[in-house]
Amino acid sequence: MHSSDDDPLELTRGLLERTASVRHGYLDVLGESTESPVPTFAQRAMNSPFVATVYERLWRPAAFFVASGVTTSAEQRRAATALRLSQANRLLDVACGPGNFTGPLARQIPPGGLAVGFDISEPMLSRAVADNSGPGICYVRGDARELPFADETFDAVCCFGALYLMPDPFGVAREMVRVLRPGGRIAILTSYARQPAPVRYAMTAGARMIGLRLFDRHAFVELFRSAGLVDVEQQTQRALQFVAAGKPS
After folding, report:
1. Are 133 and 119 in contact (CB under 8 A)?
2. Which residue, of 36, 45, 117, 203, is most buried by count of CB atoms within 10 Å of its CB?
3. DSSP-based three-state secondary structure for 105
4. Percentage of the chain surpassing pLDDT 70?
């Protein structure tokens, strides 16, 4: 039996600035009566129990390999390296979905560390608890536009494959920077529009119709630099970009 000193639910509850109830194995700061906002087709899909069931094993690995040419295992290795998880104690995985990154990345943190997966979708978090739980892992339901954590709480913060679905992706990115400790690392994987202008405009318009957003090469690089982050690095592969940076100590 876990003591309160090593129970990830209790450790995470101690980090929260809002009251949370335990539901289906995760902490919920939104409450039972709060419905997830799902105004677009893409966001409705992410809140579907069926999508939550097939996402980790089928949808994401196939879709992201086509979009980038990078396998899920290679993505996870790149993330662990960029976030310097071997030196981290607390990780926050924003828009974690069914925990397909939270679980593997948690195993890269030294013993005694904590990995928190954060999402607004109840079906996704239920899958995360079922499929990607373990020592030092906790999941939280909340709105990433207002992360319920104090400034400088985490050593590493990431968001992989979700910012292009969000109504305020730059606000979410700024929240991620806010909760990052000095000396910590941040990393994102999101969409990238690299095609010639006419094709890019057509793709952007089509993506917008289903609730997806295509970002240019500069958007997050400039956001991180304007927030005072350093060592900003960007990798682009086909339709995806990976951007990592550090917060000065």
Report:
1. no
2. 117
3. helix
4. 76
